[in-house]
Amino acid sequence: MTYSASVVGGSGFTGGELLRLLDGHPEFELEQATSRSKANKTIGHQHPNLRHSDLRFSSPEDLESVDVLFAATPHGVSMEQIDAFQDAAGTVVDLSADFRLNTEEQYDEWYDGHTRPDLLEASEYALPELNRDDLAGADLIASGGCNATATILGLLPLFEADVLTGDERIVVDVKVGSSEGGAGGGEASSHPERSGVVRPYAPTGHRHEAEIQQFLGVDVSFTVHAVDMVRGASATCHVFPDGPVSKGDLWGAYRGSYEDEPFVELVAGGGGVYRYPEPKAVAGTNRAEVGFELDPANKRLVVFSAIDNMMKGSAGQAVHAANVALGIEETAGLEFQGLHPVGAP
Amino acid sequence: MTYSASVVGGSGFTGGELLRLLDGHPEFELEQATSRSKANKTIGHQHPNLRHSDLRFSSPEDLESVDVLFAATPHGVSMEQIDAFQDAAGTVVDLSADFRLNTEEQYDEWYDGHTRPDLLEASEYALPELNRDDLAGADLIASGGCNATATILGLLPLFEADVLTGDERIVVDVKVGSSEGGAGGGEASSHPERSGVVRPYAPTGHRHEAEIQQFLGVDVSFTVHAVDMVRGASATCHVFPDGPVSKGDLWGAYRGSYEDEPFVELVAGGGGVYRYPEPKAVAGTNRAEVGFELDPANKRLVVFSAIDNMMKGSAGQAVHAANVALGIEETAGLEFQGLHPVGAP
Amino acid sequence: MTYSASVVGGSGFTGGELLRLLDGHPEFELEQATSRSKANKTIGHQHPNLRHSDLRFSSPEDLESVDVLFAATPHGVSMEQIDAFQDAAGTVVDLSADFRLNTEEQYDEWYDGHTRPDLLEASEYALPELNRDDLAGADLIASGGCNATATILGLLPLFEADVLTGDERIVVDVKVGSSEGGAGGGEASSHPERSGVVRPYAPTGHRHEAEIQQFLGVDVSFTVHAVDMVRGASATCHVFPDGPVSKGDLWGAYRGSYEDEPFVELVAGGGGVYRYPEPKAVAGTNRAEVGFELDPANKRLVVFSAIDNMMKGSAGQAVHAANVALGIEETAGLEFQGLHPVGAP
Amino acid sequence: MTYSASVVGGSGFTGGELLRLLDGHPEFELEQATSRSKANKTIGHQHPNLRHSDLRFSSPEDLESVDVLFAATPHGVSMEQIDAFQDAAGTVVDLSADFRLNTEEQYDEWYDGHTRPDLLEASEYALPELNRDDLAGADLIASGGCNATATILGLLPLFEADVLTGDERIVVDVKVGSSEGGAGGGEASSHPERSGVVRPYAPTGHRHEAEIQQFLGVDVSFTVHAVDMVRGASATCHVFPDGPVSKGDLWGAYRGSYEDEPFVELVAGGGGVYRYPEPKAVAGTNRAEVGFELDPANKRLVVFSAIDNMMKGSAGQAVHAANVALGIEETAGLEFQGLHPVGAP
């Protein structure tokens, strides 16, 4: 069976990734891509990897009826348009922050007033590793924030296996690529200013802390740095467990959570160039790499987690969740293995 | 029907690309990957994008019998091992320069003495756009040089449509990424020295001129620069036709050669960011982008051609040729569309 | 003796370089920097390398009287403001294209109507290697275009030594960094789109051809590519002399033109990593590197020329010319040797 | 007065920086540069920014008598050669780790057996911000580790002002460029593998912890990541003070320690692109940028510190210390302000 699909907001970066994934998806038929600024242009005009396609952007006013609608619009748009989206499609996957949090109180703490708080509880977070069961049959799905996704995937097994209780001190130092800023970046995103940086762009108070708190029940000390790559988010979690933990216990925890997960790769060290998780190794893919190291001298556990911010951190997660929601093979359309070598992907 | 396949020399960059392509190929079954230096290690140890695979490198001495053997060994190895390769497989695709040229004289002019000149005439060049018919059923196939491939694809229609005769002056200024140097690069390939360069690394006398001469019948003034990307080869051909040529004639020539080609995209200008061929747009794919601009003031035609040096310029071309040789769907295993945005891929 | 100096348009990239050079210049005293958009902010707010300075941008309306005024304003501004500039300063150095060409006819061919054609003949081109004598005592100086500067420096000795006559075919293939687009780049200059490119951004008809024609008397086939670096312009000139030329003759020509030049380094090949001119080697400096290679098979001479587009190609050239105009030591304020290693500078 | 100087181990990266600094230093006369592998070649053959120099590398066996000898040799060499170094020069500045620690016990804990433990106590650490008084007249000076230097400069004022006592939890997450690996990097340092990385290369147990412990009296949880730049080290210190601290107190502490320091710039936030310390802003210079942000929700203080690992983190620190030791103007030879814009420096 094939499902018809559309992308609202297809000219941006995550919109382009959705178009790519749907274009190559064996079970989805891409029916429509909307873009106000690029209406009537081919999708390949904006996304050169899709030059082979004849599809043209249409105006966001004229939504076609489809089985699944993916919304890749700026924060705040989906909550305004949600009725139209749900009229057009039985399954809506939203990539913005609008429906990630569960309560109006949480939302107001980190963002500005929500216009559809009634839907906050009803929506499902798109991360199958976290809530696969709830995604089955879901009709409103909220794809997670990329930095939150990397962090949650790094820490989740420690909570699932009760290595951590939520009272521990956790520092999360994230490094992200320039695509996180989206297609309309300003002066700070210009190549001369952004090239070669290590730039603290969210030293404190990053909104993705809210998602981490919601799902792991822990406050993390969160700092995000911009570094010189286009795709990728790498979260280094410095964790201070209360008591002693062994490498064996940790491997048990991580294997317990992830051994059947199709998109999580445990990276076990060993020799060679790629001994720990790295965004390069997953660029273009829906994979997350997760690994860790113990620092007994400081009673510290260091967890590394790497994703492609636009894939596992956004569009790939969204398609994965749609696959789960509709009962399609989970890996459908997400088989790309990634490249080696690859530069600043 | 499924064909068994092996990769000899699987730890290098093009070997890794072959492994990736065969791993995802619907008609090939990857049976063996050899590497002397990495024997017994998993292929994912060397190529982190293939960590999901259980396959381990075996010694190159123990070749298994397969339908197709891909050799990604340094220049000179295949001519020494060709009997063993052909004993092991009915179809051999060699990615080195050993069997690209047709005669011993040509070979001796550009390389050092050939030990199996008897096979030079018998082997087929792997570029289907150039000799698809000869590839059908071929048992010894030579994948082309990346810079030669980019150049040939840029200029071929001009010769096929008789816009050029071979007497014209042609300057080819190529820009290539660091993967062209292979996995064992020295000091000049180290990140501090190679990063951010525009470095004339083959100002004159590049061996790929031989392939261009062989297939187009023209001597080109050829210069190759290293620039800061990992994957990619971009050939800018400055051509001086004898008489006037029109844009319409040129489009006719290019469409005539390529409109049915699954892996050549004509880039027609227009607006937006990506108006001409660019390696970024084809990174990881088997596509070539080709486009041109007229410079009437200088009676010049400028042709742009962009490929991924490891794909259309090597491993992708090899798989494409094997598909043609065995009568498989040409695009099988080569469907990846590429990414947008993507950094220095 | 010390000269007072000001920079009009100090918030842009070349304006920032002027501020840096004047800040460290032993004979100039930086009195004023103007910027409409950044008025009242410190110059270090815009240019973090100048955070030690207390100087604040002032409005361009309030020009102080100084000995030398450097104008780093967009094309077209200086011709409108030239009376005010000359009222404020006895020596005006303009970094735009407004006063580079000698005649209104030339200007109209490449740009749009000039409002002060009376000053075209009177102004002096800022390249001392070309016209040091005319610069002495000049009161209106036009700093050259970066791509033109790289090209002229590469080819000049061939004309001075009569190796070329102006009838030869010359192809100039230029690679430039992202700073050439200036501080206000749009979507194509954003990091995700600009990173890792080989992008033909001026395939034909680049305006710098006019300067080359004016000074060398030859039409060149000129194509400019954007590559992944911030600073730098590298011109590869493919030259086809009428008769045979020897390496000795060429060295004679280049040494004859440049052996006493403080800012031109002849790069003679030899071994090591840096065998030809490279922009990396001159980043941040006022040096040009020039070298060549003969291609007897194609009767071709390949000349390589590399500069920092913002230094020798703009702000450094301007300060050098001001030094000459005022009779200061030519290298004053321009002593920085550059860095090794350095990335994409 | 002018001091004669030599560099032992001049072909490496930090050796090259020493040569650059001494070449441009008003009080030092560069007499000798040694290199075993490059003996008899000009220093410009290895370091293209120094092509103007006639100096040739000599064999390290033939040390000339000079006033100051800088040793840029691998760890372990200086302790073997120290008698020869001290015979040749009254002041020896060593850039390796050999003399950084005070006691044999410390050394043995982090490195392998020291052959000259008698000199550990006698040598002075090269960081003037830490021990300017002891450097005056010193005859054996040990330049600090780059990551340690960045960290110490970030945290020092907190200890000097008693904001911290040494019992607090401190996580230091460092990002460094590829030059840290030195000129002889292996496969992991090759451009294709190193480009675009966020790679945990020292997750735990980095030797620079020893220096931090020695000078600040605190154990830090230290993790170092390789990112895509050539020069630069950025230390993000996540600090958890016992009690409340105010922004005012913190500014007081930082100003108290650094307001008279010529090479420390406090970066106070504000608007614009460069709101926090960044390695780009100090590339090529001897400056450190230091700044911070409070995270009241997590009772956390985040301190950012950025240096050029080869300058303030090595060669620049060494020259600065030599200036102090000899009573020269501290900033002599270290005046370069850095560049804007600059890529991956």
TrEMBL record, chains A, B, C, D:
NADP(+) binds at S11, G12, F13, T14, N309. Its main location: cytoplasm. Residues 4-138 form the Semialdehyde dehydrogenase NAD-binding domain. One of its GO terms (cellular component) is cytoplasm. It holds the Pfam family Semialdhyde_dh. Gene3D superfamilies: Dihydrodipicolinate Reductase, domain 2, NAD(P)-binding Rossmann-like Domain. It comes from the Archaea. It is an enzyme of class 1 (oxidoreductase). It catalyses: [amino-group carrier protein]-C-terminal-gamma-(L-glutamyl-5-semialdehyde)-L-glutamate + phosphate + NADP(+) = [amino-group carrier protein]-C-terminal-gamma-(5-phospho-L-glutamyl)-L-glutamate + NADPH + H(+); [amino-group carrier protein]-C-terminal-N-(1-carboxy-5-oxopentan-1-yl)-L-glutamine + phosphate + NADP(+) = [amino-group carrier protein]-C-terminal-N-(1-carboxy-5-phosphooxy-5-oxopentan-1-yl)-L-glutamine + NADPH + H(+). Keywords: Amino-acid biosynthesis, Arginine biosynthesis, Cytoplasm, Lysine biosynthesis, NADP, Oxidoreductase. HAMAP family: ArgC_type1 (MF_00150), LysY (MF_02083). This is Putative [LysW]-L-2-aminoadipate/[LysW]-L-glutamate phosphate reductase. It comes from Haloarcula nitratireducens. The gene is argC.
